């Protein structure tokens, strides 16, 4: 049974302001706890139907948890399963980095002898792993050969990036993205808190990219709402797989979490390289509600 502050005040003969003060004191003392529970918004979304509407081969939906970490863990297990599903002997598989994919690498239990290519340079994130650790984790499986990208994802300027691209080891890894059999990437939105790259550049570049139409970020590559690469300074400073290379990859699994990334996912889908979309229930519901605009 629920009662308003006015109703409680009337019952005890005090003012609603006194009720509010007592509640604040009770919260501070730990006598009262407020728990917010969100319903599972995407539980009614049918993956096959959503895949048809969005124009991808498969949609995988994982539960939205009580917090981001719980949701991310569920998505990591599914991402690991998808990586193992697309792997086959002697395949060349590419994988980018995100918090979810970092967790996913730890849940991969079996890979056939194959080549694993790091698709994006290192991007240190406090409290998380990095792309080099991810690739090394996958390389522990017997017969798996890894191709690390020995460079940061974002460097200081275009000249530095171009110089690094000419280094033999880096050039070899980036070149192997031309012949991927499958790839697993993450989708970010070009706004604070929704892209790990956002915090690695200054405000001038953030605004420049936004004004150029950036709404999505995938492996450091920015896309506009139409799914086209954004022409900004960041494009020349990134060491990662290109949109064109992903478009020539037969199978691409894209991972995204949270309704706030809905527009970014739509943009990435319009780029035409995603074959399997892995989302949580919340994002599935957002995509389902406005899927007709895709």
Automatic annotation (TrEMBL):
Gene3D superfamilies per record: 3.40.50.1360, Homeodomain-like (1.10.10.60)
UniProt key word DNA-binding: yes
Species classification: Bacteria, Bacillati, Actinomycetota, Actinomycetes, Micrococcales
Family stated for the protein in its record: Belongs to the SorC transcriptional regulatory family.
Domain Sugar-binding residue range list: 49-287
Name of this chain's protein: Sugar-binding domain-containing protein
Species whose genome carries this gene: Arthrobacter citreus
UniProt keyword terms in alphabetical order: DNA-binding, Transcription, Transcription regulation
Keyword Cytoplasm: no
């Amino acid at each position: 049974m629920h009662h308003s502050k006015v109703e409680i005040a009337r019952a005890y003969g005090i003012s609603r302001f006194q009720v509010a003060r007592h509640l604040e004191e009770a919260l501070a003392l730990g006598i009262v706890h407020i728990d917010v529970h969100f319903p599972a918004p995407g539980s009614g979304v049918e993956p096959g139907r959503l895949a048809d509407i969005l124009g991808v081969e498969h949609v995988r939906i994982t539960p939205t948890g009580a917090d981001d970490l719980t949701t991310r863990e569920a998505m990591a297990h599914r991402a690991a399963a998808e990586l193992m599903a697309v792997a086959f002997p002697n395949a060349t598989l590419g994988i980018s980095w995100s918090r979810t994919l970092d967790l996913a690498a730890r849940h991969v239990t079996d890979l056939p002898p194959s080549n694993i290519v790091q698709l994006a340079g290192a991007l240190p994130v406090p409290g998380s792993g990095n792309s080099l650790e991810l690739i090394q984790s996958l390389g522990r499986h017997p017969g798996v050969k890894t191709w690390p990208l020995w460079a940061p994802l974002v460097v200081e300027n275009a000249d530095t990036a171009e110089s690094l691209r000419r280094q033999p080891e880096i050039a070899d890894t980036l070149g192997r993205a031309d012949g991927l059999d499958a790839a697993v990437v993450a989708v970010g939105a070009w706004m604070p808190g929704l892209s790990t790259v956002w915090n690695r550049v200054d405000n001038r570049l953030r605004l420049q990219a936004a004004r150029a139409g950036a709404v999505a970020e995938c492996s450091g590559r920015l896309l506009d709402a139409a799914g086209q690469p954004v022409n900004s300074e960041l494009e020349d400073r990134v060491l990662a797989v290109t949109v064109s290379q992903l478009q020539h990859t037969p199978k691409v699994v894209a991972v995204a979490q949270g309704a706030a990334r809905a527009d970014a996912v739509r943009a990435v889908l319009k780029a035409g390289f995603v074959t399997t979309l892995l989302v949580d229930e919340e994002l599935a519901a957002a995509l389902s509600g406005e899927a007709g605009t895709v």
